């Protein structure tokens, strides 16, 4: 079986750490922003502005990394998925979450394997059973999809070794399916990203305005000599 380090890549690890950091920073930022606005504390509002700016810059940096490193990410992801397929075992509870996630992808996108169903022929369990079984999540039959995970049996077992061509599965690989999904939903993705960026900019503008108002009030309260 694969070691945990073989199921990840430097780029994916970096992306995960960035998301965790941004999530923690967002929670802290929201708390500081509310506290600063309610109690009119300029330093907290300034910190809120700084956090928003850092998050916005991090999002821009992440988008640039994904755009310019997309081929590298594709190669790394391909290696992870191929290893997962070769070592897929429904009885392995240690990898249950990862395998369920991949089953979900194959079911929802109606695809099989990373580049195609042939990759499943290299799975240890299927190879030992002469490929008379196939992954249920790859199936193009609704009754198999009800199972959702694991392996299903061929209804008419063949004499000798079966191949992926004998399986009732989708022929499209998930790499092409994911790319098609991204292209079809590109407008929605860009719209959501733009909306989030606009909200963050509005928050930055609002925090600056509150800081200026507090400064003006403090100035008017200073007694004139």
UniProtKB/TrEMBL annotation:
Coiled coil: none annotated. It comes from Molothrus ater (Brown-headed cowbird). InterPro entries: Tetraspanin/Peripherin, Tetraspanin_animals, Tetraspanin_CS, Tetraspanin_EC2_sf. GO terms for cellular component: plasma membrane. PROSITE patterns: TM4_1. Signal peptide: none annotated. It holds the Pfam family Tetraspanin. The chain crosses the membrane at residues 16-38, 45-68, 188-211. Its main location: membrane. This is Tetraspanin. It is a multi-pass membrane protein. Keywords: Membrane, Transmembrane, Transmembrane helix. It is found in: Membrane. Gene3D superfamilies: Tetraspanin (1.10.1450.10). Belongs to the tetraspanin (TM4SF) family.
